Automatic annotation (TrEMBL):
Belongs to the SIMIBI class G3E GTPase family. ArgK/MeaB subfamily. It holds the Pfam family MeaB. The lineage of its organism: Archaea, Thermoproteota, Thermoprotei, Desulfurococcales, Desulfurococcaceae. This is Methylmalonyl Co-A mutase-associated GTPase MeaB. Residues 44-246 form the AAA+ ATPase domain. The gene is meaB. Keywords: Chaperone, GTP-binding, Hydrolase, Nucleotide-binding. SMART domains: AAA (SM00382). One of its GO terms (molecular function) is GTP binding. The keyword Kinase does not apply.
Amino acid sequence: MESPREIVRKAVETKDRLYIARALSLIEEGMYGEISDMIFSSPRAHIVGITGSPGVGKSTLINALISELRKRGKSVAVLAIDPSSPISGGALLGNRVRVRNLDEATFYRSISTPPERSLSLKAYLMIELLNTIGFDYILIETPGAGQVNVGISRVADTVVVVVQPLTGDDIQMLKAGIMEIGDIYVVNKSDLPQAELTAMHLRTIVGDTNRDGWHIPVIKTNAISGKGVAELVNAIEQHMLFLKNRNLYTARFRRRRMAIVEEYVSNAIYKTIHRYFSSARIRVEDTDLGNPLHTAMRVLHEVLATMCRASEGGSTAH
Ligand SMILES: Nc1nc2c(ncn2[C@@H]2O[C@H](COP(=O)(O)OP(=O)(O)OP(=O)(O)O)[C@@H](O)[C@H]2O)c(=O)[nH]1
Ligand SMILES: [Mg+2]
């Protein structure tokens, strides 16, 4: 049996997909304490978030992006975030396209997150490990609803928001939800009617948006035929150049690492509190519930004091 450290060492040294998968599984199983000094290295990958509503063609587009990036000699890892909904059980969408592994220089992994959570700490750590392994591009597919979206803009260097051809009303709705986060907008399914109209509307909307002086492109693609995909890769590359020229690349790196610090700390606090409430240690009398806010403050102080004692004792909470 290889030790966790052995597995990660082999993943980094050989870049063998089996070892990469096993190394990521260690993180997924929460065993990152043992390998934490092997996960991080200076940034070299271009981390690209591909986000958008279900069914707009993100996975199909990622397949097309892999082909184009491989043509350009780049290695590519894909991390697909799959919010497992307890209601639909993930079976809601019948026509899901799978991302393919094309050759040895590509890697694909999907991870499930609880639907109410943003990108998890585990996802952040997997991204870091894929960077250390040395992929040129790390593409992250995330569904475009709610919190996950916000998560992606904390970890990605470049956020690509994918939409499909829409009617005017839908475009107004879009404006509210996802217009804040994209560095690049893609109107996929350009073979369908309304694609040009949608692109025009989007251009009008993003024309007013200023992202540190970056001119936000709106690109039409047909992910099935590959039309427009080279142009998208060009835009992704230009965005990286822009980040580097403006010293924003290191700012994004810092934001990503800070997200890990914050996630770790909040996870640990959440777990401690959860443990506290589910144990018999918390004593709340009926009389305390006359003012539950006072009681909450008292409990909070107790929990924080417990955490302080635990961390002074050197214990870690994952
Ligand atoms: N006509 C047309 N259909 C497309 C295009 N791109 C993707 N599709 C189809 O759209 C459907 C959904 O594609 P996916 O790639 O699974 O979409 P997704 O955004 O990854 O979906 P989820 O992962 O479920 O959120 C599939 O039937 C694809 O074949 C396109 O450019 N044109
Ligand atoms: Mg998909």
